[in-house]
Amino acid sequence: MKLELGFIKINDVQFSNECAVKDGILYVNPEEVKEYVYDYDDVKQFVKSISFDIAKPGESVRITPVKDVIEPRCKVEGPGVIFPGVMNHKVDTVGSGRTHVLKGAAVVTAGKIVGFQEGLIDMTGPGAQYTPFSKTLNIVMVCEPVEGTKQHDYERAVRFAGLRAAGFIGQIGKNVEPDEIKTYETLGIKEGIEKYPNLPRVGYVHMLQTQGLLHDTYVYGVDAKRIVATLINPTETMDGAILSGNCVSACDKNTTYHHLNNPVVAELFEEHGKTINYVCNIITNENVYLADKQRGSDWAAKLAKLLDLDAVIVSEEGFGNPDADLIMNCTKQEKQGIKTVLVTDEYAGQDGKSQGLADSDPLADAVVSGGNANMPVVLPPMDKIIGMTDYVDVCSGGHAGSLRPDGSIEAELQIITGATNEMGFNCMSAR
Fold first, then answer.
1. Cα–Cα nearest to 243, from 139, 159, 300
2. 20 to 30 A from 206, CA-CA: which of 161, 261, 305, 383?
């Protein structure tokens, strides 16, 4: 597969009566976006109201509770649409042709959603140092539920509403000439062996959060709980084949933005043909039952062996229960001669002295850490709140009294969206 990404640099976002990109400024008509989103029956049924706001880097703004972050993109050439399985009913394979990216902009869904295991984004102050989304121009979509709506129905409606809003806004850049074009291409198995006979064959085992109870990930619109480990072309992820559908702790939640900009994929492409032969991605899930964990890791190891891989990078999403999946994926690969590098974060207690993972093995001897999610932080009050602070005390990382009377927040790092991301898309690391 060969995919061109055309990056349109966005330096500012403004609300306007028109939708356009001019001189690096993204103009968005919020009423047009709302009208498009409300054209879907699930939004009409479960979402009472939608309002929009803008949060820019450096502003004294706190966004909470945050559900998802999505980068606006659109297909320009090639089969399918961005976010296949969500934007339309016909699901074509994506990952080829050309896709335009509104680089620097993001759609953030927030408001009265589930609360627990959502998080926050500070646009300035110490909290801003821990999240990549303090540096994006955020179009914040604040949603309110229809009274009596069940959490699962509302969560899915808000999730898909955000994706559709990002898809609509992405279309604004369809006919805009990109500032930069990057090309990503993978080879067939036979062609890759012939072209790079002396380079190690490397794959990426991409673990997807699928614990249920709002802990979901979608692959082409299908809940990944229902899949077995399978192959996916790396370029498919750049076209929205994998979408966030979960509310794990904010710090290590893979938002849709993370999936679209997966740094593991980007770095492997960077080394492809130079130091490694980047063969493929293997996606596998993180179900809660032991039999599912054994099945998933068995299949991932089987596929890696069939592809004759020399090494794999394994990334996790979440913590605790998924740590068992992580170690299973590691040990089964290592025992069949495939070297592994794990990317995860740690829950090592506020003093950092506890065991960072719930499971371990001597074969897990190459680990990249995204930091300690239990690290305590104090976030000063902000001049403006987008959303509401009702849920701060019950968000993962918070506690009774986290929200102080003056508006400051005392919590653990896990309350900050993307702070210890397990793809490595963050500012934290340890050696």
1. 159
2. 161
Give the mean model confidence (pLDDT) for residues 1-25: 97
pLDDT of the residue at 216:
85
Cβ atoms within 10 A of the Cβ of 307, count?
17
What span, in angstroms and rounded, lies between the C-alpha atoms of 18 and 95?
30
Confidence at residue 278, expressed as pLDDT on a 0 to 100 scale: 97
**To the nearest whole percent, how much of the chain has pLDDT over 70?**
98
Asked if 234 and 423 touch (Cβ cutoff 8 Å), the reply is: no
Token output for 121: 């984004």
pLDDT tens digit sequence for 336-372: 999 999 999 999 999 999 999 999 999 999 999 999 9
Cβ neighbour number for residue 103 with a 10 Å cutoff = 22
Q: 372 near 347, Cβ under 8 Å?
A: yes
Question: What is the predicted pLDDT for the residue at 78?
Answer: 95
Phi, psi of 243 (to 5 degrees): -125, 140
Give the H or E element holding residue 281: strand 277-286
Would you state the structure tokens that stand for residue 221, as one six-digit string? 């619109």
Q: What angle do CA 427, 428, 431 make, to 5 degrees?
A: 135
Q: Count the neighbouring beta carbons within 10 Å of the beta carbon of residue 385.
A: 14
Strand 61-70 versus strand 119-122 pairing type: antiparallel
Q: What positions carry a catalytic annotation?
A: 247
Burial of residue 55 (CB within 10 Å: 0-12, 13-18, 19+) is buried
For the chain, the domains span 2-415
Write out the H or E segment, with its range, that includes residue 13. strand 12-15
* DSSP β-ladder status, 311-315 and 367-372: unpaired
DSSP string, 38-80: TTSHHHHHHEEEEEEEEE-TTSSEEEEEEEEEE--EEEEESSS
Distance CA(372)–CA(384), nearest Å, equals: 29
Closest CA to 395 of 67, 132, 158: 67
Give the relative orientation of helices 151-170 and 30-37 as an angle to the nearest 10 degrees.
130
